[in-house]
């Protein structure tokens, strides 16, 4: 089996990434050089990547996984030609990168949405949360806006202008909202459960609170407008958006064995989606327009 994982990835910068990938040849995107297709991922040791690379090998597609531990690196590495694809981010994150770096990396396929949930140790349902209750939300730029949209979808707050993926706590319309929000570090949303009525907690920290995803009082719905920016995607350079081999890799990710392993890795929270590339590009463009206006 022609499976390669580049481990560990040096974190010193782009040059180190390129060296780890085995050289300076960046012609693999067209498939003309015969080199493996290099894919930047986070968590290359997960079982679903094993299943994915085995399927790719069966079809004669030579894949090399390049493992990253720092989310800030796969996009520059792709833009600079050190990778052919990456698959680790949602549209909101990609939009923020493109706007900040004047880049045009492009989504070519969807993978899944990982719902963001509202949890409580004091209340058993949304209806139990009292008027004037306090809800903790993550304070990082990406998750804060999403948490606000979750609370609005749950009927707990109202956001100015209906809310967006760039909403801030200052956009909460107090007189139309049932609860107040308190931004805290994402890792503190779980520990805050002891002192607030509820917390919006990232999946990474749910287990830390002794909770299961099924304990959520509410979570954003994969088919809701508020969840669209958080579709996780395959990303290529814009000139490679039509690459047929890359599109076949997108399709392989949705094979039953890959989705099953991915679902297990997410604790059953992954909601798989196969939005077409043109729809993803439209969503991305809208997010980038909003970000550029702020």
UniProtKB/TrEMBL annotation:
One of its GO terms (cellular component) is membrane. It is a lipid-anchor. Gene3D superfamilies: Periplasmic binding protein-like II. The keyword Lipoprotein applies. Belongs to the NlpA lipoprotein family. This is Methionine ABC transporter substrate-binding protein. Residues 1-19 form the signal peptide. InterPro entries: Lipoprotein_NlpA. Keywords: Lipoprotein, Membrane, Palmitate, Signal. It comes from the Bacteria. It is found in: Membrane. The keyword Transcription regulation does not apply. Coiled coil: none annotated.
């Amino acid at each position: 089996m022609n499976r390669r994982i580049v481990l560990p990835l040096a974190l010193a910068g782009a040059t180190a990434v390129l060296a780890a990938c085995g050289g300076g040849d960046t012609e693999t995107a067209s498939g003309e050089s015969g080199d493996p297709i290099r894919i930047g991922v986070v968590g290359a040791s997960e079982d679903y990547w094993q299943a994915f690379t085995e399927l790719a090998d069966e079809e004669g597609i030579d894949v090399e996984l390049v493992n990253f531990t720092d989310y800030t690196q796969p996009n520059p590495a792709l833009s600079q030609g050190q990778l052919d694809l990456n698959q680790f981010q949602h549209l909101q994150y990609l939009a923020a990168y493109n706007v900040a770096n004047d880049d045009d990396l492009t989504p070519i396929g969807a993978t899944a949405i990982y719902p963001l949930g509202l949890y409580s140790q004091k209340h058993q349902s949304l209806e139990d949360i009292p008027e004037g209750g306090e809800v903790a939300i993550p304070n990082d730029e990406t998750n804060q806006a999403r948490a606000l949209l979750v609370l609005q979808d749950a009927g707990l707050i109202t956001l100015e202008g209906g809310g967006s993926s760039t909403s801030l706590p200052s956009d909460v319309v107090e007189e139309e909202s049932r609860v107040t929000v308190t931004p805290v570090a994402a890792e503190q949303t779980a520990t805050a459960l002891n002192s607030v009525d509820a917390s919006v907690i990232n999946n990474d920290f749910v287990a830390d609170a002794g909770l299961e995803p099924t304990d959520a009082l509410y979570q954003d719905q994969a088919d809701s407008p508020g969840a669209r920016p958080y579709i996780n995607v395959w990303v290529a350079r814009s000139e490679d958006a039509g690459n047929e081999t890359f599109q076949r890799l997108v399709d392989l990710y949705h094979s039953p064995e890959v989705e099953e392993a991915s679902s297990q890795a997410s604790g059953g929270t992954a909601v798989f989606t196969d939005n077409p590339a043109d729809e993803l590009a439209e969503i991305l463009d809208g997010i980038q327009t909003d970000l550029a206006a702020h």
